[in-house]
Design a protein that fits this description.
12 strands; single chain; 10 helices; alpha/beta; six-stranded mixed beta sheet; globular; 32% helix; three-stranded antiparallel beta sheet
Amino acid sequence: MDGTLLDPDGEVPATLWPLLRELRERGVLLAPASGRQYATLARTFADALDGMPVVAENGTYVVRDGVELASVTLDRATVVEAVDALRALAGTRDVGVVLCGKRSAYVERTDAAFLAEARRYYAELAEVDDLLAAQDDVLKIAVHDFGDAETGTAPALERFRATHQVVVSGPHWVDVMAAAANKGAAVRGLQAALGITSAQTAAFGDYLNDLEMLDAAELSFAMADAHPRVLERARFTAPSNAEHGVVTTLARLVGVDVAALRAAAR
């Protein structure tokens, strides 16, 4: 979504909606795959959710037509250890923690600056006194670093890498997830469930949480301004999100005229 499908203002390109209609007529499924919460993605695609698989929370939660298809959760011991470590980090670094559950996301930091960042990605967001008191299945722990996440928060979580996924999902976000969880695993599960091969799959990404997903698709595209490791990993390059690269590339793949999409979007 961010840096890939959404434009620099965080909006869905208007041309996506007529393209979705064309894709459906051709029997092509579009599946949003994001670090964002399911509720947030469902709100964004509210008028197109029928039959649409949604890969939420960086692959830890997959839903279609309101039914959970797959999920990967964190055990209680890891949640406690990670939250304690991040509370300690907050004493020396400007970070905020989001505990991401199936029903809601939870925060105990409630200043305006952090809540503004969290609410961009979590439509269902509960403010609590104690993250560890939240009663929910925990999909991941997301950390917003007001500095550089890759050089700041990520190294502080290094000890979790041996047993869990610690992935930098944006310039200011790091996620802690179960070892088996990533967008690629979720996409491969969807492919198996729907009888779709990697040769029939196109994937687009811009950041480090997209790497495994790109591996799951023979038509793998890095956005033109993607992280250097993403550009190295993908087989092809798409125009940037500012140029609506996902829409224009998909239109080319299925033989839809982009000018017609622009006309239909007016």
